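re the bet — no i am not wrong, look at it urself. input seq straight from the record:
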Amino acid sequence: MWDRVREGAWPPGTRIPTERALAQDLGVHRSTVADAYDDLAADGLLDRRQGSGTYVHQSLWGVAPNWTRYLATAASRPSAALLSQVRAARVRPGILDLTLADPGPDFWPQEALARLWPTLDPPAMLEYGPPEGAMALREAVALEMERRTGRPVSPTSVLITAGASQALYLAARGLLKPGDSIAMESPSFYYSLPLFQSCGIRLLPIQMDRQGLMPDALEATLRQHRPAMVWVNPTHHNPTGTVLSAERRAAVLELAARWQVPVLEDDAFNGLDLPGAGPPAPLYAQGGSPHVIYVGTVSKSVAPGLRVGWMVAPDPVIRQLADVKGQMDLGTPLAMQALVAAWLTHPERARHESAIGRRLLDRLEPFQQALKPLHALGATWERPTGGFYQWLRWPEGKTDRQWLASAVHRAGLVFSPGQVYGSPEGYGRFNFAAAPRERVTAQLAQLADVLS
């Protein structure tokens, strides 16, 4: 125990394991641990509090740094308790994890990527690259953006990032200052990110309905609060799955022009459409490019471990954000950039993308059938048209924490409670694409039995 204190694993004030728990861990009799605790307390190393537990004595500061103070005052805050509960459930043996951010290995083009890898040039991948990204990939992304939007894009307007998450961080760090505010959909994946608190940025929720962000609500927020930026996830929105209509996209762009506020468009789920359900063109394509910062990625459509994304914005913005990125990480690994550049221009890519919609549909159909017993109990939902997520509203009567505990301990599955994304009680996000037919049917039926 003294080694744990000296090494800083148990800072002064830490509540240490009970006698029973430590005896079980060490495989000794409880009386042996009790005698040791008594001796350490007599030496002034432990503080034994009746009815409360045993703690490392507060007088031991100086043995190790005051980690408690550092942890309590750091700019980056710990995850919310509910999110911590989800993370703990995900590692339970045998759990069906429906919180995943991707559909899993069945959707990854593993064989095609394995064939591409030997064709790359190892010496060119082992150096530090420019913070803007390798020019070969910037050119490939520029062509990809022209395909997505129908608008010519210069490679100098492209910044390569370590996934979409880093792009969001760069926008917050490189374009905003402490005290600024961002208007964004509510609920939203962004509310689960701690980066805004560490940047001192205030979040302004914009009301949504079944068609996504409501332009009237956005206009009211712009008028009342004058946010520094608007962030939107208009296509297969995370977590609700909604798709913003072309009319509403045009309204968002009109508001951005009228109020002269930039819009960050997170288009991470581009191309992940069910057959026959193509969404409107990105905001960036609809004449609003002077006001739009576009964020794309291959993490959702190819594989999450590639960690390659991009931002498209006016050249001065790209130069500023590239400078910030260079201070952070000296550039996204060139090996991953080379692989993605080869993939974006490879013929097998088209076959992979044409198959994604069919695979998503193959997962969605049995998932929708498996949800029917929950509907009979009062749960409601809208069928998604793409992406990975089913947003479900629970029948009233339990808190999110109770729904989650029932799912984990009695049905063997874990989902993401809506509160993680800023929604009120009573909602949950399920990754239907990561749900094998043979398991999800039985376990959702089991969850319905628990609820009934």
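see?? The chain has three domains: 2-73, 81-100+351-451, 110-345. told u. also The mean pLDDT is 87. so pay up
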